[in-house]
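hey so i finally got around to running the thing on that chain from the lab meeting. sorry it took forever, my laptop kept dying and i had to restart like 3 times. anyway pasting the input first so we r on the same page abt which one it is
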Amino acid sequence: MTDTTKEKLKSPLITTPLLVIFVIAAMQASRLAMKNLSEETNVFVAVGVIQLIVFALPCMAYYLMKGRKLNEPMYLIPRGGTHILFLIFAALFFICGMLMIKFFYFVNGGSVASLVNFYEDFSGTTEGAGHLEIILSLIIIPAFCEEFFFRGIIFSEYRRYGTANAVIMSALCFAMLHFSIENMAIYLFTGLLLGFVTAMTRSIIPSIALHLLSNTLSIYASDAFLRVTVVKNGAFFIGFVLTLLTCISFILLLSRVESICLNYAERPPVDAIPNKSIKHTAKVFLSPTFLFLLLAFICFSIFM
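ok and heres what got predicted. didnt touch it at all, straight out
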Protein backbone atom coordinates (compact mmCIF):
# COMPACT_ATOMS: atom_id res chain seq x y z
CA MET A 1 0.00 0.00 0.00
CA THR A 2 1.48 3.34 -1.06
CA ASP A 3 1.86 6.30 1.28
CA THR A 4 -0.72 8.21 -0.78
CA THR A 5 -3.29 5.45 -0.32
CA LYS A 6 -2.59 5.34 3.42
CA GLU A 7 -3.10 9.09 3.69
CA LYS A 8 -6.42 8.85 1.82
CA LEU A 9 -7.61 6.09 4.14
CA LYS A 10 -6.71 8.26 7.15
CA SER A 11 -8.71 11.19 5.77
CA PRO A 12 -11.50 12.44 8.08
CA LEU A 13 -13.84 12.11 5.11
CA ILE A 14 -13.48 8.34 5.56
CA THR A 15 -12.61 7.80 9.22
CA THR A 16 -15.05 10.19 10.92
CA PRO A 17 -18.29 8.87 9.38
CA LEU A 18 -17.12 5.34 10.17
CA LEU A 19 -16.59 6.41 13.78
CA VAL A 20 -20.15 7.79 13.91
CA ILE A 21 -21.53 4.58 12.40
CA PHE A 22 -19.72 2.59 15.08
CA VAL A 23 -21.22 4.79 17.82
CA ILE A 24 -24.70 4.45 16.26
CA ALA A 25 -24.35 0.67 16.37
CA ALA A 26 -23.01 0.84 19.94
CA MET A 27 -25.96 2.97 21.07
CA GLN A 28 -28.43 0.52 19.57
CA ALA A 29 -26.61 -2.36 21.24
CA SER A 30 -26.76 -0.46 24.53
CA ARG A 31 -30.55 -0.25 24.25
CA LEU A 32 -30.67 -4.03 23.98
CA ALA A 33 -28.44 -4.25 27.03
CA MET A 34 -30.79 -1.92 28.94
CA LYS A 35 -33.71 -4.22 28.18
CA ASN A 36 -31.93 -7.09 29.88
CA LEU A 37 -30.98 -5.32 33.09
CA SER A 38 -31.85 -7.08 36.29
CA GLU A 39 -34.46 -5.51 38.55
CA GLU A 40 -31.82 -4.81 41.18
CA THR A 41 -29.71 -2.67 38.84
CA ASN A 42 -29.86 1.07 39.31
CA VAL A 43 -31.07 2.25 35.90
CA PHE A 44 -29.58 5.73 36.22
CA VAL A 45 -26.14 4.35 37.07
CA ALA A 46 -26.42 2.00 34.09
CA VAL A 47 -27.36 4.87 31.76
CA GLY A 48 -24.38 6.92 32.94
CA VAL A 49 -21.93 4.05 32.55
CA ILE A 50 -23.26 3.16 29.10
CA GLN A 51 -22.90 6.74 27.87
CA LEU A 52 -19.30 6.82 29.06
CA ILE A 53 -18.60 3.56 27.23
CA VAL A 54 -20.45 4.50 24.04
CA PHE A 55 -18.91 7.97 23.65
CA ALA A 56 -15.70 8.20 25.70
CA LEU A 57 -14.08 4.89 24.74
CA PRO A 58 -14.55 5.33 20.95
CA CYS A 59 -13.18 8.89 21.26
CA MET A 60 -10.03 7.63 22.99
CA ALA A 61 -9.62 4.71 20.58
CA TYR A 62 -10.06 6.99 17.57
CA TYR A 63 -7.54 9.48 18.97
CA LEU A 64 -4.96 6.73 19.49
CA MET A 65 -5.61 5.23 16.03
CA LYS A 66 -4.99 8.65 14.49
CA GLY A 67 -1.55 8.69 16.13
CA ARG A 68 -2.68 11.04 18.93
CA LYS A 69 -3.13 13.80 16.40
CA LEU A 70 -6.47 14.95 15.03
CA ASN A 71 -6.87 16.56 11.64
CA GLU A 72 -6.97 19.94 13.43
CA PRO A 73 -6.25 20.60 17.14
CA MET A 74 -9.25 20.31 19.44
CA TYR A 75 -10.59 23.58 20.81
CA LEU A 76 -10.24 23.23 24.58
CA ILE A 77 -9.26 26.47 26.30
CA PRO A 78 -10.86 29.75 25.12
CA ARG A 79 -8.45 32.07 23.34
CA GLY A 80 -8.76 35.76 22.57
CA GLY A 81 -11.13 36.78 25.37
CA THR A 82 -13.84 35.38 27.58
CA HIS A 83 -16.77 36.48 25.36
CA ILE A 84 -19.09 36.70 28.37
CA LEU A 85 -21.75 38.82 26.62
CA PHE A 86 -21.65 36.57 23.55
CA LEU A 87 -22.27 33.51 25.71
CA ILE A 88 -25.12 35.22 27.59
CA PHE A 89 -26.84 36.17 24.33
CA ALA A 90 -26.15 32.69 22.90
CA ALA A 91 -27.81 31.15 25.96
CA LEU A 92 -30.82 33.48 25.59
CA PHE A 93 -31.15 32.64 21.90
CA PHE A 94 -30.73 28.95 22.70
CA ILE A 95 -33.48 28.96 25.33
CA CYS A 96 -35.90 31.09 23.28
CA GLY A 97 -35.26 29.19 20.06
CA MET A 98 -35.66 25.81 21.74
CA LEU A 99 -38.90 26.89 23.41
CA MET A 100 -40.22 28.26 20.12
CA ILE A 101 -39.50 25.02 18.25
CA LYS A 102 -41.03 22.94 21.05
CA PHE A 103 -44.02 25.30 21.07
CA PHE A 104 -44.79 24.54 17.42
CA TYR A 105 -44.48 20.82 18.12
CA PHE A 106 -46.78 21.21 21.12
CA VAL A 107 -49.56 23.17 19.39
CA ASN A 108 -49.52 20.82 16.40
CA GLY A 109 -49.92 17.75 18.57
CA GLY A 110 -46.44 16.39 17.98
CA SER A 111 -44.32 14.68 20.59
CA VAL A 112 -41.64 16.96 21.98
CA ALA A 113 -38.20 15.42 22.28
CA SER A 114 -35.72 15.88 25.06
CA LEU A 115 -32.01 15.93 24.34
CA VAL A 116 -31.61 13.19 26.92
CA ASN A 117 -34.55 10.97 25.96
CA PHE A 118 -32.74 8.12 24.20
CA TYR A 119 -32.99 5.84 27.24
CA GLU A 120 -36.19 7.22 28.72
CA ASP A 121 -38.17 4.10 27.83
CA PHE A 122 -35.97 2.20 30.24
CA SER A 123 -35.37 4.85 32.91
CA GLY A 124 -39.09 5.45 33.30
CA THR A 125 -40.15 8.49 35.24
CA THR A 126 -37.70 10.59 37.21
CA GLU A 127 -40.17 10.80 40.10
CA GLY A 128 -38.73 9.17 43.18
CA ALA A 129 -35.22 9.13 41.78
CA GLY A 130 -32.44 10.94 43.60
CA HIS A 131 -31.50 14.33 42.21
CA LEU A 132 -27.83 13.34 42.15
CA GLU A 133 -28.62 10.30 39.98
CA ILE A 134 -30.63 12.43 37.55
CA ILE A 135 -28.06 15.21 37.40
CA LEU A 136 -25.14 12.87 36.78
CA SER A 137 -26.71 10.40 34.34
CA LEU A 138 -29.07 12.68 32.39
CA ILE A 139 -27.41 16.10 32.59
CA ILE A 140 -23.67 16.11 33.32
CA ILE A 141 -22.39 12.92 31.69
CA PRO A 142 -24.33 13.40 28.40
CA ALA A 143 -23.20 17.03 28.11
CA PHE A 144 -19.50 16.26 28.58
CA CYS A 145 -19.43 13.03 26.55
CA GLU A 146 -21.45 14.36 23.62
CA GLU A 147 -19.57 17.65 23.39
CA PHE A 148 -16.17 15.96 23.40
CA PHE A 149 -17.46 13.63 20.69
CA PHE A 150 -19.34 16.06 18.43
CA ARG A 151 -17.63 19.43 18.98
CA GLY A 152 -14.30 17.91 20.02
CA ILE A 153 -13.63 15.03 17.62
CA ILE A 154 -16.02 15.55 14.70
CA PHE A 155 -15.80 19.35 14.56
CA SER A 156 -11.99 19.25 14.79
CA GLU A 157 -11.68 16.57 12.14
CA TYR A 158 -13.76 18.49 9.59
CA ARG A 159 -12.38 21.96 10.33
CA ARG A 160 -9.73 21.57 7.62
CA TYR A 161 -12.57 21.60 5.09
CA GLY A 162 -14.00 24.90 6.33
CA THR A 163 -15.55 26.03 9.58
CA ALA A 164 -19.10 26.07 8.18
CA ASN A 165 -18.74 22.48 6.96
CA ALA A 166 -17.41 21.46 10.39
CA VAL A 167 -20.35 23.12 12.16
CA ILE A 168 -22.93 21.56 9.83
CA MET A 169 -21.35 18.10 9.88
CA SER A 170 -21.09 18.01 13.67
CA ALA A 171 -24.73 19.16 13.88
CA LEU A 172 -25.92 16.50 11.44
CA CYS A 173 -24.10 13.76 13.34
CA PHE A 174 -25.49 15.12 16.62
CA ALA A 175 -29.03 14.98 15.19
CA MET A 176 -28.61 11.51 13.73
CA LEU A 177 -27.28 10.06 16.97
CA HIS A 178 -30.52 11.01 18.74
CA PHE A 179 -32.50 8.70 16.42
CA SER A 180 -35.61 10.86 15.89
CA ILE A 181 -36.59 11.91 12.39
CA GLU A 182 -39.76 13.49 13.80
CA ASN A 183 -37.78 15.78 16.13
CA MET A 184 -34.89 16.44 13.77
CA ALA A 185 -35.50 20.22 13.88
CA ILE A 186 -34.79 20.37 17.61
CA TYR A 187 -31.55 18.45 17.34
CA LEU A 188 -30.33 20.31 14.26
CA PHE A 189 -30.99 23.67 15.90
CA THR A 190 -29.12 22.59 19.01
CA GLY A 191 -26.21 21.09 17.08
CA LEU A 192 -25.81 24.10 14.80
CA LEU A 193 -25.82 26.56 17.69
CA LEU A 194 -23.37 24.52 19.77
CA GLY A 195 -21.04 24.19 16.79
CA PHE A 196 -21.33 27.91 16.04
CA VAL A 197 -20.50 28.80 19.66
CA THR A 198 -17.49 26.47 19.53
CA ALA A 199 -16.25 28.12 16.35
CA MET A 200 -16.67 31.66 17.70
CA THR A 201 -15.16 31.07 21.14
CA ARG A 202 -12.54 28.57 19.93
CA SER A 203 -13.37 26.27 22.85
CA ILE A 204 -15.72 23.39 23.63
CA ILE A 205 -16.16 24.62 27.21
CA PRO A 206 -18.98 27.07 26.30
CA SER A 207 -20.77 24.37 24.30
CA ILE A 208 -20.56 22.05 27.31
CA ALA A 209 -22.08 24.78 29.48
CA LEU A 210 -24.94 25.35 27.01
CA HIS A 211 -25.49 21.61 26.74
CA LEU A 212 -25.72 21.37 30.53
CA LEU A 213 -28.26 24.20 30.50
CA SER A 214 -30.29 22.52 27.75
CA ASN A 215 -30.37 19.14 29.51
CA THR A 216 -31.40 20.79 32.77
CA LEU A 217 -34.25 22.70 31.15
CA SER A 218 -35.38 19.62 29.20
CA ILE A 219 -35.74 17.61 32.39
CA TYR A 220 -36.96 20.16 34.88
CA ALA A 221 -38.60 23.08 33.11
CA SER A 222 -39.26 23.57 29.41
CA ASP A 223 -42.09 21.11 28.69
CA ALA A 224 -44.03 21.96 31.85
CA PHE A 225 -43.49 25.67 31.18
CA LEU A 226 -44.99 25.38 27.70
CA ARG A 227 -48.01 23.39 28.85
CA VAL A 228 -48.85 25.81 31.65
CA THR A 229 -48.28 29.03 29.72
CA VAL A 230 -50.17 27.90 26.61
CA VAL A 231 -53.18 26.81 28.67
CA LYS A 232 -53.24 30.02 30.73
CA ASN A 233 -52.41 32.59 28.04
CA GLY A 234 -53.39 31.01 24.73
CA ALA A 235 -51.29 29.58 21.93
CA PHE A 236 -51.28 32.72 19.74
CA PHE A 237 -49.98 35.02 22.49
CA ILE A 238 -47.27 32.59 23.63
CA GLY A 239 -46.21 31.94 20.03
CA PHE A 240 -45.95 35.69 19.38
CA VAL A 241 -43.90 36.31 22.55
CA LEU A 242 -41.52 33.41 21.89
CA THR A 243 -40.99 34.47 18.28
CA LEU A 244 -40.31 38.06 19.34
CA LEU A 245 -37.88 37.00 22.08
CA THR A 246 -36.08 34.64 19.69
CA CYS A 247 -35.63 37.42 17.13
CA ILE A 248 -34.40 39.92 19.74
CA SER A 249 -31.92 37.45 21.25
CA PHE A 250 -30.68 36.56 17.75
CA ILE A 251 -30.04 40.23 16.94
CA LEU A 252 -28.17 40.65 20.24
CA LEU A 253 -26.13 37.54 19.43
CA LEU A 254 -25.23 38.90 16.00
CA SER A 255 -24.05 42.15 17.56
CA ARG A 256 -21.53 40.24 19.65
CA VAL A 257 -20.48 38.14 16.66
CA GLU A 258 -19.57 41.33 14.83
CA SER A 259 -17.53 42.50 17.83
CA ILE A 260 -15.68 39.18 18.10
CA CYS A 261 -14.91 39.12 14.36
CA LEU A 262 -13.52 42.67 14.52
CA ASN A 263 -11.38 41.69 17.48
CA TYR A 264 -10.10 38.61 15.64
CA ALA A 265 -9.30 40.79 12.61
CA GLU A 266 -7.14 43.05 14.75
CA ARG A 267 -5.54 40.23 16.73
CA PRO A 268 -5.86 36.97 14.78
CA PRO A 269 -5.89 33.89 17.05
CA VAL A 270 -4.42 31.80 14.22
CA ASP A 271 -1.53 32.23 11.79
CA ALA A 272 -3.35 31.11 8.66
CA ILE A 273 -6.81 31.89 7.30
CA PRO A 274 -9.10 28.81 7.48
CA ASN A 275 -10.13 27.09 4.26
CA LYS A 276 -13.32 28.24 2.58
CA SER A 277 -16.15 25.79 3.15
CA ILE A 278 -17.74 26.21 -0.29
CA LYS A 279 -14.71 24.66 -2.01
CA HIS A 280 -15.06 21.46 0.00
CA THR A 281 -18.85 21.17 0.41
CA ALA A 282 -19.38 18.51 -2.25
CA LYS A 283 -16.37 16.52 -1.08
CA VAL A 284 -17.59 16.57 2.53
CA PHE A 285 -21.29 15.82 2.09
CA LEU A 286 -21.07 13.49 -0.91
CA SER A 287 -18.29 11.26 0.37
CA PRO A 288 -19.20 7.55 0.18
CA THR A 289 -18.76 7.00 3.92
CA PHE A 290 -21.03 9.94 4.81
CA LEU A 291 -23.71 8.65 2.43
CA PHE A 292 -23.33 5.25 4.07
CA LEU A 293 -23.77 6.97 7.45
CA LEU A 294 -27.04 8.54 6.24
CA LEU A 295 -28.25 5.13 5.08
CA ALA A 296 -27.33 3.57 8.43
CA PHE A 297 -29.19 6.32 10.29
CA ILE A 298 -32.33 5.86 8.19
CA CYS A 299 -32.27 2.09 8.63
CA PHE A 300 -31.78 2.28 12.41
CA SER A 301 -34.47 4.97 12.75
CA ILE A 302 -37.05 3.00 10.76
CA PHE A 303 -36.39 -0.59 11.74
CA MET A 304 -35.05 -0.39 15.31
